[in-house]
């Protein structure tokens, strides 16, 4: 795992927690921020996955 993959997973989890807190408190802004954090985390993890795939391909050469 690279740092982008780890950071992506952490951001996604943080977003889920923030969204749940927003649900509990009725805070729509917090809910939206949580959803945005989740999307950002997923994107960052996918970037990390792509980097790992490229790295493995280069290592095979």
TrEMBL record:
The record ties this protein, via SUPFAM superfamilies, to: Hypothetical protein YjbJ
Q: Which domain of life is it from?
A: Bacteria
- Bias (Basic and acidic residues) occurs at 46-61
Name the Pfam families on file.
Answer: CsbD (PF05532)
Q: Where is the CsbD-like domain?
A: 4-56
What ranges does the record give for the region Disordered, renumbered to this chain?
1-61
PANTHER family attached to this UniProt entry: UPF0337 PROTEIN YJBJ (PTHR34977:SF1)
Q: Which family does it belong to?
A: Belongs to the UPF0337 (CsbD) family.
Q: What protein name does the entry list?
A: CsbD family protein
The organism named in the record is Azohydromonas lata
